[in-house]
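so my prof wants the structure for this chain in the tokens format not the other one, which i didnt know existed until like an hour ago. anyway here's the sequence
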Amino acid sequence: MERVSVLIVDDHQVVRQGLRDFLELQDDIEVIGEAGTGAEAVEVASRILPDVVLMDLVMPGIDGVEATRRIKAISPTTQIIVLTSFSDDEKVFPAIKAGAISYLLKDVSPLELARAIRAAQRGEAVLHPEVAAKLMQEFSTPKPQEQSPEALTEREMDVLKLIARGHSNKEIAEILIISEKTVKTHVSNILSKLHLQDRTQAAIYALRQRLVPMDQ
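here's what i got, hopefully its the right format
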């Protein structure tokens, strides 16, 4: 039987051990490594090339989004499952854009996690129900209330495009050489002017308006 090799990434050793203890009970899943930081995750993944990475998002140093981006650049066939306590909007879209195939919360049942790992190995996405419903609704539902992007200033347009590319507020601030507080103000203005509710809607709006390529 071919086994799915897994790298567990989380900054809490207790969490890593709990995941390992369960996954090692599965006949078709093998834990071949652990990492406690994003940088360590990139280093270990580049060395052992796991089939699947279970990726935490909030860790010391580089976060899970950036670690995901770097691992996918090194090993495109490695599938990454975000496993986090956070379902807030600012983290969901960047993680998916960075290359994560699945986005799950840590309250997922062990059996559901095992199924998600097997699905990832087959190239199939598994999203937390709230995330899946949100993305499906945003892509499929017409938005007659959406305003023209011409309502935005040039700088707001720059921020919107970077949101659509999966960048966090901190990364946008660094790219545009402005403060993170200023980025938050621009994001607030964008949502208000375009009659959008959150960053995910803003990112999908930019894709729908072809402000950035769908595959960028």
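also thought this was worth mentioning. The first helix runs from residue 13 to 23.
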